[in-house]
Write a structure and sequence with these properties.
The structure holds two protein chains of two kinds. Chain A is an alpha/beta fold. In chain A, helix 10 packs across helix 11. Chain A contains 14 helices and nine strands. Chain A is elongated, with a radius of gyration of 25 Å. Chain B is of the alpha/beta class. In chain B, 55% of the residues lie in helices and 7% in strands. The two termini of chain B are 58 Å apart. Classes of the chains: A alpha/beta, B alpha/beta.
Chain lengths: 301, 486
């Protein structure tokens, strides 16, 4: 079979073209997923571009994105398939006057025509290339995870009345998780694991430059540096990449050329969402002299 | 077929690598093992970063295990790949040309002919300073090698750990002073005096670079040790427990920092799980009204029975924690955990003691940052009565007279400590009385079970009056207990 990507470097290049700046790990795992035909389980803090990765990969491979948003109480009729009862009922009623046998009828009403495909089945049956995104998998219950196992390992769905439907082409599958609970071993075993953390400073700067129009290089650099320093504090919720971008856009709107102490203090509430975090960041950033100690591992204890 | 023949030594290496991962406590299944073998066929070993991520993606399925994986990877693959090889004869001394080749061409003219050995210590320090100032990665790497070679004093076969060599190297480099000098330079370079914000940013930048240098030195030492002792022996000495298995009482500073980081996601997970359990756990009695209403869409047939949500009473928690020296860390983590899931309880009250006892509930009230509150408890609570050595007997007695009558049938009491009473009177009748009034009394002991009731530990004496005594040496055990509690 043919592969989607030629090399790790080409994945990176292509992603860059659609403004997704991947690091070595992200590109490497995406490449590997294509080669091994395995799903990728993407984990990491909120707002680091997990979902965006799937979207961008779909864009560069020219595939259709099929998305399954997970939530508590998701079941197979929402994820896999469902029989269209109403239509089946109509069919039975329409047949009533004709003298067709029960076998004919049951064969008829359990056919493709009465099957409502849901995202997973749709991805399996798609003729065109698709990328399947199973978003926030950690929101479903452990039992529901089992629904996915057959799809993920064999790319097939078994429907008792119809038999087994096998994928026409192996879709690229992304599962994202915010890690609010431990996923089952069975699921993890079937996936390649990718942890996306906050980007390092250079990458973040590039992201800001790519995503915020007309921002000057100097300002982007400063934004990235400040965000890095803030992330090193022990906070309840560290600023995510999307918050960095919001902040950069705000600075642009305010016509700020250079982030001074005062500007930072006044706008830090865009980066941080908890009052205690904001207070801490303001305190830390405005402390005098190099004598300050981090609230990190070294000072406590 | 020829391809598998050619990769044969690599597969062998991989097998040893995976065995070591399992030894280190990472759960690597057979499928994952096969995936890794498949993965290495697609990613060349020469592309070391990509190779590492490829192996990681197939073998490591949890971010907390990544560090352990990285260490083992460094050991097993540190001598592979061209740029990382020590030289043709890996055991022998590092050839001088190595360093020279490493130096970027522009820099070679400097420093007395460019040979690494010919540099005086001052020159080396100066080059290091410059490299740090400019953030020159290649230069830093070369200098790290040179520094290790010169200062660590490594000899083949010497039975000393890597930390010793690291210490020796760092002492000679005196990085704290270098940082100070870099900051000085930054202040001079800027036209206007640095604002606190700028100062902070510069400081972070340089600290990061120095940190990178330190890592480079560590890696270099590790490479040399591996060359000297062989892969297996080295991997064994470097083996470290995973964060959830780190012993509270003997955690190193670094491990403590990791623990603190690990506790945030842990509490979040626990809270979500408990909230879910509460909602889904048992089914309540039939909700007749709701069932009837839903039956309308089935033509009056109650096809979809609805049940009332159960609302089990939330317990009230009293935490009584010993915060003296050795067990302080344990108390801190437990308090942290209990308060993080305090919405699962109707009320949480916290008491801390050494030989005196103090209520610290108010420290946690209306506070966003639990870590901060726990820190305040450790510094501000009034817990010393006579000499600041643990006296469980006295602490419990005072507790009983002051707050004893507030224990009710809904209260669960958790006592945290190693019960090392310095041979004072135990006053275990207090625990007995508590048990009469409270719903449950639990004792959590951070010591391994084998040490209980040895020396001045009298946990057995208290234990017979408790509903349970638990060994809580690491996060895993603590999490399990808290889960059980709710």
């Amino acid at each position: 079979m043919s592969y989607r990507f030629d090399s790790v470097a080409s994945v990176r290049e292509d992603l860059r073209k659609v403004d997704y700046l991947a690091d070595e790990g992200i590109a490497g795992v995406a490449y590997l997923a294509d080669r091994l035909g395995k799903p990728i389980l993407v984990e990491g803090p909120a707002g680091t571009g997990k979902t965006q990765l799937a979207k961008s990969v779909a864009e560069i491979t020219g595939a259709r994105l099929i998305r399954l948003q997970c939530y508590e109480g998701l079941d197979e009729s929402k994820a896999l398939y469902e029989w269209n009862y109403k239509k089946q009922l109509l069919r039975i009623q329409a047949e009533r006057n004709k003298d067709s046998s029960w076998e004919d009828l049951s064969e008829d009403i359990f056919s493709d025509e009465f099957l409502l495909t849901r995202p997973l089945l749709e991805a399996i049956r798609a003729e065109d290339p698709v990328v399947l995104l199973i978003d926030e998998i950690d929101r479903v219950e452990v039992e529901t995870e089992a629904l996915l196992l057959e799809v993920l390992s064999d790319y097939q769905v078994s429907i008792p009345e119809l038999g087994t439907l096998t994928a026409r082409q192996i879709p690229l599958v992304f599962l994202t998780s915010n890690n609010t609970r431990e996923l089952s071993e069975a699921l993890k075993r079937r996936c390649l694991f990718l942890h996306i953390d906050y980007p390092d400073m250079d990458r973040e700067k590039e992201i800001v430059l790519a995503k915020v129009p007309d921002i000057s290089e100097a300002l982007a650099d400063q934004v990235a540096r400040i965000v890095r320093s803030i992330r090193q504090l022990e906070l309840k919720k560290a600023p995510s990449v999307s918050e960095t971008l919001d902040w950069a856009r705000t600075l642009m709107l305010l016509g700020v050329q250079e982030v001074t102490d005062d500007v930072a203090k006044d706008t830090v509430n865009i980066l941080l969402k908890y009052q205690s975090d904001i207070a801490k960041a303001v305190r830390e950033l405005s402390q005098e002299g190099p004598s300050f100690k981090r609230t990190g591992p070294r000072s406590a204890n | 077929m020829t391809a598998t023949q050619a990769t044969h030594p690599l597969l062998e290496l991989l097998e040893g690598f995976i065995r070591e991962l399992r030894e280190a406590g990472l759960p690597v299944s057979l499928t994952e093992n096969l995936d890794a073998m498949e993965a290495v066929k697609h990613i060349p070993l020469e592309d070391r970063e990509a190779f590492k991520y490829a192996l990681g993606a197939t073998l490591v399925k949890s971010n907390t295990h990544w560090r352990a994986f990285e260490t083992v990877f460094e050991v097993y693959f540190s001598l592979r790949g061209k740029e990382y090889q020590l030289g043709p004869e890996a055991d022998a001394e590092l050839p001088d040309e190595e360093l020279e080749g490493e130096l970027p061409p522009g820099q070679q003219g400097q420093g007395a002919g460019g040979g690494g050995d010919a540099l005086t210590p001052e020159e080396l320090a100066e080059m290091l300073y410059k490299a740090l100032l400019e953030g020159d990665e290649a230069m830093l790497r070369a200098l790290a090698r040179q520094a290790v070679k010169r200062y660590a004093g490594m000899e083949p076969g010497r039975p000393v750990g890597g930390t010793y060599y690291l210490y020796r190297t760092l002492r000679n480099l005196d990085l704290d002073n270098v940082l100070e000098r870099l900051m000085q330079q930054a202040r001079e370079d800027s036209p206007a005096p640095l604002t606190p914000l700028e100062e902070r940013l510069e400081h972070d930048e340089y600290e990061l670079r120095i940190d990178r240098l330190r890592k480079e030195i560590e890696a270099e030492i590790r490479r040399r040790l591996v060359a000297d002792r062989g892969v297996e022996a080295m991997a064994k000495t470097l083996r470290k427990p995973l964060p959830e298995d780190v012993d509270f009482m003997h955690a190193s500073r670094e491990e403590m920092a990791n623990l603190r980081k690990a506790i945030y996601p842990l509490t979040r997970k626990l809270a979500v799980r408990l909230a879910r359990k509460r909602r889904h756990g048992r089914k309540g009695p039939l909700d007749f009204r709701n069932t009837m209403r839903h039956s309308l869409s089935y033509g009056g047939v109650p096809a979809d029975p609805k049940f009332r949500y159960p609302r089990p009473a939330k317990p009230e928690i009293f935490v009584i924690a010993d915060i003296s020296g050795s067990v302080a860390a344990f108390a801190r983590f437990t308090l942290h955990l209990v308060y993080a899931i305090s919405n699962q309880f109707s009320k949480v009250r916290a008491f801390v003691f050494i030989d005196g006892i103090d209520e610290v509930t108010s420290y946690f009230e209306g506070v966003d940052d639990i870590g901060e509150a726990v820190h305040r408890v450790n510094t501000e609570a009034d817990v010393v009565w006579v000499d600041g050595h643990s006296d469980y007997g006295h602490a419990l007695e005072v507790f009983w007279t002051k707050w004893g009558r507030e224990i009710g049938p809904k209260t669960t009491v958790m006592i945290l400590g190693d019960a090392r009473n310095n041979y004072h009177a135990s006053q275990s009748w207090v625990v007995k009385e508590m048990r009469h009034k409270a719903r449950h009394v639990y004792w959590l002991n951070p010591e391994p079970k084998a040490y209980w009731d040895t020396g001045d530990s009298i946990v057995g004496e208290y234990g017979i009056h408790c509903d349970g005594t638990f060994e809580c040496r690491n996060l895993r055990q603590l999490e399990k207990f808290v889960d059980h509690l709710v």
